[in-house]
């Protein structure tokens, strides 16, 4: 789950990378945090789209059924 702390940390590392640079450990942490963040966003979008298409499919069949 994406927490406020995760986002704060991503932002902190981003700004630090721009101002003074990151250590190798921080670069690795930043990479892992970003991967986790992107993975969760993708899963969230996929779930929403699956729900959307499931609803659309349900409504389509439902409407189609009434035509007969």
Summarize this entry quickly.
This protein is mainly α and 68 residues long. It has helices spanning 4-19, 24-67.
Task: Provide an overview of this structure.
The chain has about 70 residues and is mainly α. It has a single domain, classed as Methane Monooxygenase Hydroxylase, Chain G, domain 1 (Up-down Bundle), CATH 1.20.58. Helices cover about 90% and strands about 0% of the residues. The protein has helices at about 5-20, 25-65. Helix 1 (about 5-20) crosses helix 2 (about 25-65). It is rod-shaped. The chain starts with a helix and ends with a helix. Keywords: Cytoplasm.
Task: Give the tags.
single chain, 68 residues, mainly alpha, Methane Monooxygenase Hydroxylase, Chain G, domain 1, 88% helix, rod-shaped, DUF896
